[in-house]
Amino acid sequence: MNVNNAPSGDGGKTVIITGGNGNLGLAVTQKFLDSGYNVIATVINEAAKKDLPAHKNLQVEVVNLTHEGETASFIATVIDKYKKVDAALMLVGGFTMGNISATSGTDLGKQFSLNFDTAYFTTRPLFQHMLGNGSGRLVYIGSRPALDAKSGKDVLAYALSKSLLFKLADYLNEEAKGKNVTATVVVPSTLDTPLNRQNMAGADPGDWVKPEQVADILEWVTSEKGLPLRETILKVYNNS
Question: Which CATH number do you get for residue 176?
């Protein structure tokens, strides 16, 4: 693996954060570092490593999470080094507009690859690892269009791909009942990012959700405070 600022592995819990250099990923990575976790963050290329802060407890890896074999190899190497992965946050994803008349099979495939395959390929080896350890937290980023037909009809490929994460979490929670391994879906509404401010200039960003607020919730879910949670879907909508 290509290691950047590899952590010592001492002390806190170990968490994998996919898409660590995105608008949400940067806030989440910083929150978990501040909370004492060993963080292994994935990015898509070498240049993206520079987006993340230098930190003794941060390891940044270039991984193509749409490739099952590469993802499995990455997970195996992390487990070999740290012995136990306590949590994984699947933040990688993509977005596209289009209703059914504008959405081709190719469009569907691209969105499924980004929003579902990346999460599934990460989850599959980690779920077995966590079952073997008798503990673990898997957290997915859902979307409101996947839950609401009115907002989903014009972003069909995106909404359909995100909807699979809710079903995956259901199946995992059923299989892991009584084993202290859980799958949680956190559903933010519009994130307060520079791009969204630019694209929605007439909206009030005060109604949106800040990435740091989502980061706080994700850390709470994976912490000792979140231990009682089961079969959880958290709608983080603020006033939007």
Answer: 3.40.50.720
Question: How far apart, in whole angstroms, are the C-alpha atoms of residue 222 and residue 120?
Answer: 19
Q: Which two tokens stand for residue 15?
A: 């968490």
CB atoms within 10 A of CB 136: 24
Q: Residues 168-194: what's their mean pLDDT?
A: 96
Write down the pLDDT at residue 3.
40
Map residue 184 onto helix, strand or coil.
strand
Whether 1 maps to a domain, the answer reads: no
Residue 1 token pair: 């693996």
Instruction: Tell whether the model's pLDDT for residue 121 goes beyond 70.
Output: yes
Residue 19 pairs with which residues in a beta bridge?
none
Closest CA to 145 of 166, 160, 159, 163: 159
Rounded to whole angstroms, the Cα distance separating 149 from 147 reads 7
**pLDDT grade, residue 1 (50/70/90)?**
very low
State the residue for tokens 């819990």: 13
Whole-structure pTM value: 0.93
Here the tokens at position 135 are 């503990």
Query: Which two tokens mark 106?
Result: 């190719």
**8 within a domain of the structure (yes/no):** no
For the stretch 78-85, contacts whose Cβ atoms lie closer than 8 Å and that sit 24 or more positions apart, written own/partner, are: 78/14, 78/16, 78/40, 79/125, 79/129, 81/9, 82/9, 82/14, 82/38, 82/40, 84/14, 84/133, 85/14, 85/15, 85/16, 85/126, 85/129, 85/130, 85/136
Structural domain harbouring 116: 14-236
Amino acid at 38: N
